[in-house]
Specification:
This protein has about 650 residues and is α/β, with parallel strands linked by helices. About 40% of the residues lie in helices and about 20% in strands. The strands form five sheets. A six-stranded parallel β-sheet has the order 10-9-8-11-12-13, sandwiched between helices. A six-stranded parallel β-sheet has the order 14-21-20-19-17-18, with helices on both faces. Strands 2-3-1-6-7 form a five-stranded parallel β-sheet, with helices on both faces. α16 links the parallel β11 and β12. α5 crosses α6, α8 crosses α15 and α9 crosses α12. The radius of gyration is 28 Å and the shape is flat.
C-alpha cells in the first residue's frame, strides 16, 4: 500500500491503559475478572522486603519511592501482557480529624501511569458504618462529617490533577449501582476501537507464536507492498476489478492514516466484493506479484534453520500475502498479519506494527529485524533491534519517505540501514547517514542468522567492592566528592574485571634500575574506544581511561555522537555509564555501533545494573546476541529510576534542585 503521509514515531499512543479505582479509606472497591486487577497495597507489599508492615515503618520519602516502584511495576506488566490494568488505591489519607490537611500519597508514578480514574463517591454515612464494621484493619473512628470533608477534598484535587495530566476522570455517584456502572465503564475502555483493534492483532501474533518453533531466537518482521516486492497490491486489487481505487481518496483525505481511515479501507473491500469475489481477486493479484530475488533467498535460508522465523506484517491485504507466500513456497515458514474485509477482525496501522515488534521483543524475547519502505513502517523500524529501509525505484517508492527519514533520524533517533532493491536504484539520503545494507553480500546475510550468545555478566563480589559501594550509596556524598568515588570505581572495574574479560598483553618498559623489563596493559589497548555516556558516565569513564591511557576517549550525549571514525580500526568499545536501569540507553548505543561497524567487541562498564535489564530475555541479551559483556560493581533488584535528589547524574553534578 503506497503511503504519503507523515507518521510521527513520538506521537504514537503506546501507553498501556491503566484505570484507577479510588475512594476514601472504607469505600468498597471492586474487581473485574476480565481485567488485570491490582490492589495497590498488595503490590506495595510485594515490592518491599518485609511486606506491608515494613512499608508502614518507613520514612515518608522511602514510602513514596516504594509507591512509585509498585505503580511502575503495574504499568510494565500491562505493557507486556497487553491487558487493561485496574488498580484499587487511594489518593490520600486523613485518618485524624485534628489534622489540618490530608496526607496525599499520589506520586509522579501515578501521574505517568494512569490513563483513566474512576472515583467511587459513596455517601459518608455509609463509609462510616463500613469502617466501624471492619475491625480487621484497625481504622480510627472518625465522624461522617470528617469523611465527607475528606471526600470533597479528594474529588476536587483528583479532578484538577487528572485534567492537568490528561487523565480521564469520572466521579461515580452512589445513586447508581456502582459495581455495575464501573464494570460497564471498564468494558467500554476495553472496547475502545484502538484498544480492541490492537488486542485482536496481538492475539493473531500470539496464535502464530504458540504454534511456532520454540527454539526461535530471531524474528524477521517484513512489510509487504513495495518491500518484499516492487508493487502495491492494494492498487492492483481495484485495477483487477476495473473499479476506481477508493484507497487514494481515503488516505489523502482528512482521516490521513488514522485507525478510522484503515477501517474505512476495510469497509471498501466489504462494499466492493462478496466473499467469493474477494477471494478470486486476491488470487488474481497474488499471481502477478513477484518477490524480490533477495527476499526469496532470505526466506529460503529461514526455512533451513530453526532459530530464525519470519512474519509478514502488512497494512495491505492479508489474504493476498498468504497466497503470495503459498505461491512462492513459503506458506509453512512465513505467517501473515494483515488487513482485509470486515470479517478479518482487525486492521494494521503504524501503531499495530510498532506494538507487534515490541511484543515479540518483550513477551517472546525475540531479536527483531524489521524491513519496511514507507513512513508507516518508521515506528516499527525505530523499535526493532535491526532496521532495514527497503529502497525501490524512484517512480514507485514513497515520495515523502526521505523527509520522514530525516525527521525520524534527527528527532526520534532512528538507527537504520538501507537495502537497494534492485541494486542499481538511487539511495535515500546520504549513505553516510543511512548506511547501505547489501542483501547480496554473504557477510550481511550471515549477520541475520547469528546464533545468540548468552549475555556475559561479571560483577564484583570482593570486600574492596563492598567498600566502594558504600560511599556511592551514601546520600551525604555529592558533587566533586561523588565524582572522585565514581572515578575510583571505574579504575577498579577496569583493572579488576575488564582485564579479565578482554585479556592482557606484555610490552617492554624501561626499568627503574636501568635497562628494560616486562610491563602489562590491556590487550590491544590502543585499539580500544572508551565511550562516556553523558553525563552520569563521565567520572567513571575517566577512571577507566586512567587504567587504559592508550585508549581513545569519546563523550556521547546520544548515539549519534558516536561517529564512524571513533570505531573504524578499533577492536573493543567500552560503554561506560554510572547506572544501567532498563537498558534502553545501552540498546540504542548498541544499535548505533552495529550500523557503523561489524565484528567489534562491546563491554558495558557500570556501577549498578538492574537485574531485569540483564535477564535472559532482557533488552541487553537481545541486542547483544553476537557477544556483549556487562561489567558491574553490583547488581540490583531495585527498579526505581532516580529523580531529583535520587538521580545519580544530579548527585554527581549538584543539580538535584533542577529536576
Amino acid at each position: 500500500m503506497a503511503t504519503t503521509s507523515k507518521v510521527s514515531i513520538t506521537q504514537l499512543t503506546t501507553k498501556p491503559i491503566v484505570v484507577g479505582i479510588y475512594g476514601i479509606s472504607g469505600c468498597e472497591k471492586l474487581g473485574e475478572e476480565h481485567f488485570a486487577f491490582h490492589d495497590g497495597s498488595a503490590i506495595i507489599g510485594n515490592v518491599v522486603q518485609g511486606g506491608l508492615e515494613a512499608f508502614k515503618k518507613m520514612k515518608p520519602e522511602e514510602q513514596t519511592r516504594c509507591r512509585i516502584l509498585a505503580i511502575e511495576k503495574i504499568r510494565s506488566e500491562c505493557a507486556e501482557n497487553g491487558k487493561i490494568g485496574v488498580v484499587a488505591g487511594h489518593y490520600s489519607f486523613w485518618e485524624k480529624e485534628e489534622d489540618e490537611n490530608a496526607n496525599v500519597v499520589w506520586t509522579d508514578g501515578d501521574r505517568d501511569t494512569f490513563t483513566h480514574m474512576l472515583y467511587l463517591n459513596v455517601p459518608s454515612k455509609i463509609v462510616e458504618e463500613r469502617r466501624k464494621g471492619d475491625t480487621s484493619r484497625g481504622r480510627a473512628a472518625v465522624s461522617a462529617a470528617h469523611l465527607e470533608k475528606w471526600q470533597n477534598s479528594e474529588v476536587g484535587e483528583l479532578c484538577s490533577v487528572c485534567f492537568k495530566h490528561n487523565i480521564d476522570f469520572a466521579d461515580l455517584n452512589f445513586d447508581y449501582d456502582l459495581p455495575v456502572l464501573a464494570s460497564a465503564l471498564l468494558r467500554g475502555f476495553k472496547e475502545h476501537p484502538e484498544v480492541s483493534n490492537l488486542c485482536r492483532a496481538t492475539e493473531a501474533l500470539d496464535e502464530i507464536m504458540a504454534k511456532g518453533n520454540p527454539k526461535l531466537e530471531t524474528m524477521l518482521v517484513l512489510d509487504g507492498d513495495r518491500t518484499l516486492c516492487a508493487v502495491d497490491t492494494g492498487s492492483m486489487f481495484w485495477a483487477e476489478l476495473e473499479k476506481e481505487d477508493p484507497l487514494k481518496a481515503i488516505f489523502s483525505g482528512p482521516l490521513k492514516y488514522t485507525l478510522n481511515a484503515f477501517l474505512e479501507a476495510s469497509k471498501s473491500y466489504e462494499k466492493g466484493t462478496d466473499s467469493a469475489l474477494y477471494e478470486s481477486t486476491c488470487q488474481a493479484v497474488a499471481a502477478k506479484v513477484k518477490l524480490h530475488p533477495e527476499f526469496v533467498k532470505l526466506l529460503s535460508l529461514v526455512e533451513d534453520v530453526s532459530h530464525v522465523g519470519a512474519v509478514v506484517v502488512t497494512c495491505g491485504l492479508r489474504r493476498v500475502w498468504e497466497i503470495v507466500m503459498d505461491n512462492s513456497g513459503f506458506s509453512k515458514s512465513v505467517e501473515v498479519i494483515g488487513a482485509g474485509r470486515a470479517d478479518n477482525g482487525y486492521v494494521v496501522t503504524a501503531e499495530v506494527k510498532y506494538m507487534l515488534v515490541r511484543r515479540l521483543q518483550v513477551k517472546y524475547g525475540m531479536h527483531v529485524w524489521a524491513f519496511g519502505d514507507s513512513p508507516l513502517d518508521l515506528p516499527m523500524l525505530k523499535e526493532a533491534d535491526e532496521s532495514i529501509v527497503v529502497v525501490g525505484e524512484k517512480g514507485t517508492r514513497s515520495k515523502t519517505m526521505d523527509k520522514e527519514l530525516q525527521i525520524a533520524i534527527a528527532d526520534d533517533g532512528l538507527l537504520a540501514r538501507q537495502a537497494l532493491l534492485p541494486s542499481h536504484v538511487d539511495s535515500r539520503l546520504d549513505t553516510a547517514q543511512l548506511r547501505l545494507f547489501d542483501m547480496r553480500a554473504p557477510e550481511e546475510m550471515k549477520s541475520i542468522f547469528l546464533r545468540r550468545k548468552p549475555l556475559a555478566v561479571r560483577h564484583a563480589s570482593t570486600n574492596a567492592a563492598k567498600l566502594l559501594q558504600t560511599p556511592m550509596r551514601n546520600a551525604e556524598n555529592s558533587g566533586v566528592a561523588l565524582q572522585a568515588i565514581h572515578k575510583k570505581v571505574g579504575w577498579f572495574l577496569a583493572t579488576e574485571l575488564v582485564t579479565e574479560v578482554i585479556g592482557m598483553e606484555e610490552h617492554r618498559i624501561p626499568h627503574v634500575q636501568g635497562g628494560f623489563t616486562t610491563g602489562y596493559r590491556l590487550l590491544r589497548e590502543g585499539r580500544t574506544t572508551i565511550v562516556a555516556l553523558m553525563r552520569g558516565g563521565e567520572p567513571m569513564a575517566k577512571g577507566v581511561h586512567e587504567a587504559f591511557p592508550l585508549a581513545m576517549f569519546v563523550y556521547a550525549n546520544c548515539p549519534f555522537d558516536l561517529k564512524a571514525h571513533h570505531l573504524e580500526g578499533q577492536e573493543t568499545v567500552l560503554l561506560v555509564d554510572s547506572v544501567v536501569n532498563n537498558g534502553t540507553t545501552i540498546v540504542e548505543f548498541m544499535k548505533r555501533i552495529k550500523v557503523l561497524v561489524t565484528g567489534i567487541r562491546v563491554v558495558v562498564v557500570t556501577g549498578v545494573a538492574q537485574k531485569k535489564s540483564i535477564s535472559e530475555n532482557g533488552p541487553l541479551a537481545r541486542v547483544g546476541r553476537d557477544g556483549l559483556t556487562v561489567v558491574a560493581l553490583r547488581l540490583s533488584e531495585n527498579k526505581y529510576t532516580g529523580k531529583g535528589g535520587t538521580d545519580t547524574g544530579n548527585r554527581l553534578f549538584n543539580t538535584t534542585h533542577l529536576d
